[in-house]
Fold this sequence. Notes:
The protein is mainly alpha-helical. It is built from 7 helices and 2 strands; from the N terminus they run H-E-H-H-E-H-H-H-H. It has a two-stranded parallel sheet with strand order 1-2. Helix 5 crosses helix 6 (about 120-125). The chain is globular. About 20% of the residues are buried. The model has no long low-confidence stretch (mean pLDDT about 85).
Amino acid sequence: MHTASSEKLRERKEDIIPLTYNFLNKFNERYHENKVISEECLNLLIHYSWPGNVRQLENLIERLVLISDSVILMSDLPEMITENVEQVTQIDLPTSLDKALDETKRILIRKSYQTYKSSRKVAKDLSISQTKASALIREYCGDLMNK
């Protein structure tokens, strides 16, 4: 996944959910865990006014995987997040795993394609085959092609 590590996370709210799941999978695998994150916790992460970059979220998720029970709850979050959340409104999270995965795939493909503009580079960026990258670009980036 390509991320501009110097870009503030609060300027990239649409990336918080896919990044959170990406880091959750990474650290679950690294530490041989199977943690999941609650919808309420995700909602807080989205509405937190992140002072740092993507690495701040990555470090938080690693810590949460290490300290939380099987489900990461709002109570597991550090006070700096729970006390400094913008007005929280309910967000529409995908209602099924397939929808969540499809939305995450769409976001990753579109962001990579906007950055690299070639299926070969998207394939390398996302560690997938060029054939798969081409198919996903056609599926998710039709409106971005030939711009």
